[in-house]
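Hi support team,

I'm filing this because I wasn't sure whether my run with protoporphyrin IX containing FE finished correctly. The job status page said complete, but I'd like someone to confirm that the output block is well-formed before I use it downstream. Pasting the exact inputs I used:
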Amino acid sequence: MEALQSYWWFLISLLGALLVFLLFVQGGQTMLFCSHSSMTRNLKVNSLGRKWELTYTTLVVFGGAFFASFPLFYSTCFGGAYWLWMLILLSFILQAVSYEFRRKPGNLLGTRVYDAFLFFNGCAGCILLGVAVGMMIFGADFTVTKGNILDGGQPVISVWNPSHGLEAIFNWRNLLVGFTVLFLARTNAALYFINSIEEGTAFRARQRRAALVNGAVFVVLFLALVAVIFTSDGYGYDADGVISEVPYKYADNLMSLWWLGFIFVVGVVMVLYGLGKTAVRRVYNHGIVWTGAGTVLAILALMCLLGYNDTAFLPSVTDPQSSLTIRNSSSSYFTLKVMTWVSVLSPIVIAYIAVVWRKLSKPPLTPTELEHEHDAY
Amino acid sequence: MDELINVVDWSRWQFALTAIVHWLFVPLTIGLSLIIGIMETVYYRTRNEKWLRITKFWMTLFGINFACGVATGLILEFEFGTNWSNYSWFVGDIFGAPLAIEGIVAFFLESTFIAVMFFGWKRVSPRFHLAATWLTAIGVALSALWILVANAWMQYPAGMEFDPEQMRNVMVSFKDVVLSPVAVNKFFHTVLSGWVLGSVFVVGVSCWLLIKRNNRDFALRSIKVAGAVGLAGIVLTMWTGDGSAVEVSKYQPMKLAAMEGLYSGSEGQGLVAFGFVNTDKRPFDGQKAIHAEVSIPKGLSILARHDADAFVPGIEDLIRGYAVNESGDTVYKDVSYARRIEMGKTARQALRDYDAAMKRGDAAAMASAKRIIDDNFRYFGYGYLNAPEDAVPPVAVSFYSFRVMVMAGGYLLLFFIVVAWASWRRKVNLLQNRWFCILGLLTIPVVWICSEAGWVLAEVGRQPWTIEGLLPVNAAVSAISSGSVQTTFWLFVALFTVLLVAEVSIMVRHIRRKAETDMFYEPEK
Ligand code: HEM
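And here is everything the job wrote out:
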């Protein structure tokens, strides 16, 4: 049972990590308005437009897989941090239609409004998903009492801070996570543009500068975040499942699970390498490969650190015993086993996504191709 | 308590709103993906440029619609958590699995290959492109499969048992969840009804092109494909609809009684063909249930049991304790609803005792409480009801939605017989008749109403249950204020209205613009 719970926490972490990397789509959406011409903007939208559904689907699958493997999280956090999740959803609804509608005649609101929706989704998607991860690190204000279900008058098992998620948004440590994610996404987006769009040297130079500026901001935020996380206290549980506050819990996890620490460092180094190489070599266009892979590794390790080593992955700061751990919030052995069989399919999924990604990305998108595209966004 | 009722009602409205809006887009995705697949296959085989143009025209409309379906689908998934948090824990162990599988096996397939469909024309080979189109269609059908498995399971919970320690249900048989007769039937009825809807859309829009006269050949070829798909679709939809009625009669007899407005059943029960529901009618008050009733003799017995003389229990019979067993036979004096409420309360008390005993570490007391829970758990949800009448779904809505669906279905059968026949005749025919084309255009709203009515029946008819017999809506919600839910409800209303108006306006503009040109000879962009 414990092996299955750990396996599923690994998969959730992996999906989360892929999602953070794929948020480069959102990052790119925040950079549309700083385009020099409408052609440049359309190129950006269309190169992101070939990927947005992948990000979106990853979010959906992340939700579904979390539900299936750790339903108590779904039940507690979504119903609890209601406003946080509703804002995330709203922004993604707007995104889903904006690509398709933005340049179609008769679209009611005009291209600029749909581009503004994309901008909103870009900021809100990154920051608020970051806030959600922040809650998993720094805790939230809720209680879980399963016995409540027996009370006909007030049957709900989890009760959250009356601000229902707004309190999490206005917490500086959560926001730090959010902005770090945003600037990581923007950096990745600029590197993605360099890789996937061919519009002359001026365009490339601008994207290179954008990558470096955003990359610098990201590095500063990231260092601050790392310092905050690894000096923070966390919550851990003992052999009887009793949960209590543990000083320097995450730093402790990093030491005990040194191999995760190793992956984390490798990921960070890869991100820096991708950025550095882009900085020194003018014509280099594969920065995204390094920063992308590095992002996935670093976030994967970080997410694993939040759940492994007897750690509460959603600590309750009001009532530590209500905190969620991979032991007390998971599905049954049977369900996890069934789901594990299904997860055997994921290499096939990853393989066809990779094949299609390659086929659609090479050669880079050019203004000529865009003008002749039947279904361009 | 009032606040709780408010939250429950607003959460229901919000979910209903999202589901109804989502279902405006999804059946069109289901139907069009198949029709486009066929059209592109014809192109691939014949390399006739005309079929390529036809494929691309419908594909653009497909894309606009798909985006809206995706947008509304995301909210539905997350709403289980945000608005039905108790539900998510109580049955998440079973319900989450199909949702996750849907993502892993279906959504990635759709979203990956749909990008090839739209942006791959010049980047991949025609063969790869065709494969992508079909893989998208398969992805669409697979996602329907898994979400319908989840929905069917709520209507007929199978393959699970209750775990008192965790106060939730856990899965014990995946096969029973996936292959339950309700799930299988629901899948076919729903997907096939999507074929019908997609076909009506293609025929209707093509009829409009025929009225505009610029694209006769284009429209006739489209109708040829859609007419055939639609005819196959409607025949199979009716056939599986009959299967649905049989399943409902077995597993949700209260829903069947409500959709017929049947309070007191009989052998050889008639089917109401025409009538008005008396909305003042309450169980056992002796009032007439249906005014101006015209029935088809023995119709309901035949529909629900395939046996003209079978007994079909009504609402009052069920409350009194008549029940239907697995093979569909009515068993007398099973357990009355009043008794079920007592048993539900007993199970709840035993669960309280179990919990207390577990905290004390008293194994003997736990075992005896567990026995009581096991004996009474079947009716656990009834313990949350105040009176037997609370278990009766809204009769009028169920009654009318069923009739709307079936009558529209009958009309659509005739419609497709005529369309399919006309589209294969070479000579002058009905499709050149302006009035017939107008009829084709007007059939578009009919099929949407029909399809939505099907869901209204399925979901309103199962009230008050989220999980049949186990968890009523009022025990399934989240602990949020009704004000919050109201706010998001109105936000969604505004957002969906704008989205829908924009979508329809884009589609209409696109079709009109194209209709003015000759689509076969218009230079490629
Ligand atoms: C004409 C004969 C038809 C019969 C006897 C019939 C019967 C039924 C029944 C009994 C249900 C409820 C199933 C449940 O609650 O589990 C249902 C649901 C539904 N029907 Fe029909 N139906 C017919 C035609 C149609 C047509 C023509 C369409 C659409 C084009 C349609 C679309 C639906 C949909 C979307 C649902 C909801 C999904 C489901 O529960 O399966 N039906 N139908």
